[in-house]
Amino acid sequence: GAVVSQHPSRVICKSGTSVKIECRSLDFQATTMFWYRQFPKQSLMLMATSNEGSKATYEQGVEKDKFLINHASLTLSTLTVTSAHPEDSSFYICSAEAGGVVGTDTQYFGPGTRLTVL
Amino acid sequence: GENVEQHPSTLSVQEGDSAVIKCTYSDSASNYFPWYKQELGKRPQLIIDIRSNVGEKKDQRIAVTLNKTAKHFSLHITETQPEDSAVYFCAATGTNAGKSTFGDGTTLTVKP
């Protein structure tokens, strides 16, 4: 099946620093990737849709200048949390859609990145 | 936008019993409905999905039903086992850039 990796799996950083999280589709090409945030015992909250070669589409309430997304290739999307603060601490999960037609295919999730901001 | 409601939020069953989780959605344009299982600290894993042109789909002990008119779909797990214990999420996906809206999740506990 389709495999999605995420790196790092866990990161602890000081307040004010920036953190980059990578999401890779290992055995398929993904024109669309999604970034989610998940708080303990809560659902997946979509942050943004990442499209290869174009600007990401952010959900309402998500600061695009704080959560920078780059989708430079068909297998890699990155999320950079800039000037991180303790309230940004969360579980960040990416997913990639395998298939040519957006909205008709399964999303495969990465293993997630646990971000802790001190 | 799409709104997905999932019930119940917690479900406890005895091993061997059946479990049913229900979701309703609001956007009639949604056409793809996956179900994910997430174990603690791990990624959501697709367990079954259904598209809007099908009313029911079954895979061994797991089945999903879809009622487009009423805009609801359900997950059925039969002969539950302790390893079925996890959080289950439903989702509705439409043609709006392929975005999925997730339900709030159901924590299923199967008691041995």
Protein model, in words:
The complex is a heterodimer of chains A (118) and B (112). Chain A has 118 residues and is mainly beta. Chain A is globular, with a radius of gyration of 13 Å. Helix content of chain A is 0%, strand content 52%. In chain A, the strands form two sheets. In chain A, strands 2, 4, 5, 6, 9, 10 and 11 form a seven-stranded mixed beta sheet that branches. In chain A, a hairpin with a 2-residue loop joins strand 7 and strand 8. With 112 residues, chain B is mostly beta strands. Chain B is 0% helix and 56% strand. Chain B is built from no helices and eleven strands. In chain B, strands 2, 4, 5, 9, 10 and 11 form a six-stranded mixed beta sheet that branches. Chain B is globular. Classes of the chains: A mainly beta (118), B mainly beta (112). At the A-B interface, strand 5 and strand 10 of A face strand 4, strand 5 and strand 10 of B.
Largest two-chain interface: A-B, 22 and 27 residues
Mean pLDDT of chain A: 90
Catalogue the unreliable spans of chain B.
Answer: none
* Main sheet summary of chain B: 6 strands, mixed
Major β-sheet annotation of chain A: 7 strands, mixed
Rg of chain A: 13 Å
Average pLDDT of chain B: 93
Topology overview:
The complex is a heterodimer of chains A (about 120) and B (about 110).
Chain A: E1 4-7, E2 10-13, E3 19-25, E4 32-38, E5 44-51, E6 57-58, E7 67-73, E8 76-81, E9 90-97, E10 107-109, E11 113-117
Parallel strand pairs in A: 2-11
Antiparallel strand pairs in A: 1-3, 3-8, 4-5, 4-9, 5-6, 7-8, 9-10, 9-11
Chain B: E1 4-7, E2 10-14, E3 19-25, E4 32-38, E5 45-51, E6 56-59, E7 62-67, E8 72-77, E9 86-93, E10 100-102, E11 106-111
Parallel strand pairs in B: 2-11
Antiparallel strand pairs in B: 1-3, 3-8, 4-5, 4-9, 6-7, 7-8, 9-10, 9-11
Question: How would you describe this structure in keywords?
Answer:
heterodimer, A: 118 residues, mainly beta, four-stranded antiparallel beta sheet, 11 strands, globular, B: 112 residues, five-stranded antiparallel beta sheet, 0% helix, 56% strand
